[in-house]
Fold:
Amino acid sequence: MSSKTHREASREGWNISSDYATREELRTGAQLRMADAMESMAKSKVDLEAEVKRWKGVAACRLSELIYRRRSNAALRGVITKLKAERAQLTRRIARGGRLQ
Structure:
């Protein structure tokens, strides 16, 4: 066989000749190419799994931020309600002629 690898020879040499690759070399090259193709398919799957893992992390982070914001908003609504009640109490006291301290 010349300087070509089994992969390259199996791509081109389907006609068996004595100066080219043997049948076994062609078979080996074809199997190597199939193995390369399967590795590239597996690489795509691994890349997708890594992306899914990353997005799950992003989703978990956003969920915790959402929970934090909801609790914060609830606390702020409570403060607003308390201030409104104090304002109403002061308004009633002033209306009755009381003094502010």
